[in-house]
Amino acid sequence: MTQLFAVRMDVALPPDMDPAERADLLAREKAYSQQWQRSGHWPQIHRCVGEYANLSIFAVEGNEQLHEILWGLPLFPYMTMTITPLAVHPSDIAHS
Questions:
Q1: What's the Cα-to-Cα distance from 30 to each of 35, 49, 53, 66, rounded to whole Å?
Q2: Domain count, the chain
Q3: Is residue 79 included in any domain, yes or no?
Q4: Among 23, 61, 79, 92, which lies 20 to 30 A Cα-Cα from 3?
Q5: What is the DSSP-derived secondary structure letter of residue 95?
Q6: pTM given for the model
């Protein structure tokens, strides 16, 4: 059974990070996240306006799969995350 999670990811890269290292890290992050988006396990990603942060929705088989995906993020060591399990709202017309 698929479980939904909202994950807010705040990124704080070191200001003195080597520009080439930063570019490589960001390219790897983009490729990794797009792989999971294509799989259907990361159906939504939204930029938090004015912040180096995003709010993403994950559709996974459970906590372990979410943990695996998040720990695999190349930017993981530079992130603070807030994870919220989601449930269908009884007033959601798409699910009534």
A1: 9, 19, 14, 17
A2: 1
A3: yes
A4: 79
A5: G
A6: 0.93
Check: CB of residue 74 under 8 Å from CB of residue 28.
yes
In the block, which residue shows the tokens 């992050």?
29
- β-bridge partners, 53: 10
Domain CATH code at residue 20: 3.30.70.1060
Secondary structure (3-state) at 42: coil
Query: Given the structure tokens 């306006």, which residue do they identify?
Result: 49
CA–CA distance, 42 with 56 (Å, rounded to integer): 7
> pLDDT tens digits, residue range 56-86?
999 999 999 999 999 999 999 999 999 999 9
Kindly report the number of other CB atoms within 10 A of residue 89's CB atom: 10
In sequence order, the β-bridge partners of residue 46 are 55
Spatial distance between the Cα atoms of 15 and 18, rounded to a whole number of angstroms: 9
Let me know if residue 96 belongs to a domain.
no
| Cα 60–Cα 8–Cα 42 angle in degrees, nearest 5 | 30
